[in-house]
Amino acid sequence: MDTPESQTGATNGTTHVPSNGSLATHDTNSSYVLPDHKLKICVEDSSKTPLLLHLRMFEMVADHVRDSGFEVIGGYISPVADAYKKAGLASAEHRLQMCKIASDPSPWVMVDPWEADRHEYTRTALVLDHFDHEINVVRRGVGTSTGERKLVRIALLAGADLIGTMSSPGLWSNDDLDHILGQYGAFIVERNGIDIDEALAQLQPWKENIFVIPQLIHNDVSSTKIRSFLKKDMSVQYLIPAPVIQYIEEHGLYEDEGGIPRTHRRNRSGTPRISNRNSPAPSVEVSEQRNGC
């Protein structure tokens, strides 16, 4: 992955199967099998700490394309490998597990370990090639109700900040931009603080293949902000899935970043941690308050 915020998506339709020779990288792990128990599209994210907003993006694209001629048939999260070397990232092993926990309730979003398990950094274009190869070449697309096989269109799903980097001169090669936006296309979710029109103005050659999804309920939460909360020993309850908070707590993730002694830290759910386990827990009275919701 080229940037920390990118994700991948796929839709039913025509597909150009890559012929650039890059698929030779797919035999690096002979035991690898693409998870396809919910198979329908592809979506991919560098996935630091999986947010509820990351999962929400999948639902937003499904709603957006309902009347546009596309049919969303599945989604993948593809965490980056440790070779990405971004400061603050948990190990790929932990990020994979957190993404699996977060996406488990979804009937159509899955986690693909292929990119995370690689020993080298993998460019976004090659990750998209990987999904195209696994779905349209290995599996010959997806089955229909009539029994025929139909190829799917792979597309990138990302936040507007990714498009912002793509429009910045020198950050992405023109070959990669043409490969990603020209061959596959992208669904981009609006994000506060990003001028999407300005970004798209620099990407005119591919404007017909970039689909902007308005964020009707504005939410500027990010993995960076979540890590900042954790460093400050603040609660992240209701910002990320509760089982992911439990996983972070059980494995002591991000505890070395805040400078707060482990025994004085709160549980990630927001409940203060009691350092003396032999002492009885203090009783707390809670009065119910209703706000008319």
Principal-axis shape equals globular
Helical coverage, percent range: 25-40%
Measured between the Cα atoms of the first and last residue, the distance is 41 Å
Radius of gyration: 21 Å
Structural class by sheet pairing and helices: alpha/beta
Mean pLDDT: 76
Topology as H/E string?
EHEHEHHEEEHHEHEHH
Strand content: 5-15%
Low-confidence stretches: 1-28, 39-45, 258-264, 271-293
Query: Major β-sheet, in short?
Result: 6 strands, mixed
Strands, total number: 8
Strand order of the largest sheet: 3-2-1-6-7-8
**Number of DSSP helical runs:** 9
Give a summary of the structure in a few sentences.
With 293 residues, this protein is α/β, with parallel strands linked by helices. Helices cover 30% and strands 12% of the residues.
Explain what this protein looks like in three dimensions.
- The protein is α/β, with parallel strands linked by helices.
- 30% of the residues lie in helices and 12% in strands.
- It is built from nine helices and eight strands.
- It has helices at 52-64, 92-103, 114-117, 124-138, 160-166, 174-184, 196-201, 223-231, 242-251; strands at residues 6-12, 72-77, 109-111, 142-143, 149-150, 152-159, 186-189, 210-213.
- Helix 2 (92-103) packs antiparallel against helix 9.
- The longest helix has 15 residues, at 124-138.
- It starts with 5 loop residues before the first strand and ends in a 42-residue tail after the last helix.
